[in-house]
Specification:
Layout lengths: L1 E7 L4 E8 L4 E5 L5 H11 L2 E6 L5 H4 L2 H8 L3 E4 L3 H13 L12 E3 L4 E4 L2 E7 L8 E5 L2 E5 L2 E2 L2 E2 L9 H12 L7 E4 L5 E2 H7 L1 H4 L2 H9 L3 H9 L1
Parallel strand pairs: 3-4, 4-5, 5-6, 10-13
Antiparallel strand pairs: 1-2, 2-3, 7-8, 8-9, 9-10, 11-12, 13-14
Length: 230
């Protein structure tokens, strides 16, 4: 397996191209950001993109899906929990004139435990809701692409529509932190990390948003609520 990567766009989204060197097929993960950089990565790799998968359907991870499908002809895969969000995103982009066309509908809806086969590579779908209802991670042996579920030293935000702090915490603790220390994590933003490092040092998993507010800003939950009311 060979992993190519570009970081691009306003939100510095990580787009990954995971190649099976035996079949020369590849999986494109989260085409969002600067299309010129993404296209150059695909062309330089000289691999056939067999599928495009979104770890979730937020704008910064999905806004180059149409270009990716046009270039590669590959099917688009997304978890069924985020499929409605992808349709709304498509309409929003058209209405705001960010794109002169609608993003394509998904060709396959994913569920927990599904397998995506790319040549000899078999990626397991791990449903990790919390950042979004249909957020997923993709695992191949000792490698996991975590999207916006888990970052190096941080976690995905849960204050957007469909987000849930309890769900995200459960996803991380019950589905990721139970895995072996030596698994490498490739997140949707920022540098790669490991299960061991995040289990030991990621304070955002250990504390609730209210506790983080209190530690970082000295704001207790009641005070914050009073400020919002006023």
């Amino acid at each position: 397996m060979r992993i190519e990567h570009v970081e691009s766009g306003f939100f510095k989204t990580n787009t990954y191209l995971v190649c099976d060197e035996h079949s020369n097929q590849a999986l494109l993960i989260d085409p969002g950001g600067d299309w010129r950089k993404i296209r150059a990565m695909i062309q330089k790799a000289q691999a056939k993109v067999a599928a495009i998968v979104l770890t979730h359907a937020h704008y910064d991870h999905a806004n180059r899906v149409q270009e990716a499908k046009t270039l590669t002809g590959a099917p688009l895969l997304v978890h069924r929990g985020d499929a409605p969000r992808l349709q709304k995103l498509s309409a929003l982009m058209l209405a705001a004139r960010w794109r002169p066309y609608l993003a394509p509908p998904p060709d396959r809806l994913l569920d927990e435990g599904d397998v995506i086969e790319i040549g000899a590579l078999r990626f397991e779908v791990i449903h990790t809701p919390g950042h979004s209802p249909g957020g997923i991670c993709l695992r191949y042996k000792k490698t996991i692409f975590t999207g916006d579920t888990l970052f190096a030293g941080s976690i995905g935000r849960t204050d957007l529509k469909g987000g849930s702090w309890p769900a995200l915490k459960a996803s991380i603790e019950d589905k990721l932190f139970i895995l072996s220390d030596d698994i490498h994590l490739y997140p949707g933003h920022g540098p790669k990390t490991t299960i061991e490092r995040e289990r030991k040092y990621n304070i955002f998993v250990k504390l609730s948003p209210a506790q983080m507010d209190e530690i970082m800003f000295g704001i207790k939950a009641k005070e914050k609520k009073d400020e919002e009311i006023s």
